[in-house]
């Protein structure tokens, strides 16, 4: 029941941040960043297991691992960009957060273009002509 641990830590950190925020807003922000990072590090083992499982499924399905790795990198970029944008929003910097999200989207699109190209070429080959 890791979710109970995560929500427990998150709620305690939230209450502490609300209490500390009135006296020391900088410490409240650092507490939130530390808590978010700790939760992320707590989940690293789960993320590793998911990646290993996807790689095994791809190997069994005889899918080219280059595409699977690219998709996993895209997923990683999305999560990292979201995590950084949320922390930036928590700091009250919504403009920077939106730029992080834009950067993540552009990187995802750039990484997805080779996969999209292969998909389009495959579809064109399947169409009788």
Automatic annotation (TrEMBL):
The keyword Membrane applies. Keywords: Membrane, Transmembrane, Transmembrane helix. The chain crosses the membrane at residues 27-44, 65-86, 106-127. It comes from the Bacteria. The keyword Transport does not apply. NCBIfam families: spore_III_AD. This is Stage III sporulation protein AD. The lineage of its organism: Bacteria, Bacillati, Bacillota, Bacilli, Bacillales. The gene is spoIIIAD.
């Amino acid at each position: 029941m890791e979710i109970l641990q995560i929500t427990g830590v998150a709620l305690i950190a939230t209450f502490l941040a609300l209490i500390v925020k009135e006296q020391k807003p900088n410490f409240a922000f650092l507490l939130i960043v530390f808590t978010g990072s700790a939760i992320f590090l707590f989940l690293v083992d789960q993320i590793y297991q998911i990646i290993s499982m996807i790689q095994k499924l791809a190997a069994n399905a005889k899918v080219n691992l280059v595409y699977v790795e690219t998709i996993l990198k895209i997923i990683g970029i999305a999560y990292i960009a979201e995590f950084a944008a949320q922390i930036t929003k928590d700091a009250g910097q919504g403009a920077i957060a939106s730029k992080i999200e834009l950067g993540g989207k552009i990187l995802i699109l750039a990484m997805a273009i080779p996969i999209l190209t292969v998909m389009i070429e495959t579809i064109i080959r399947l169409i009788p002509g």
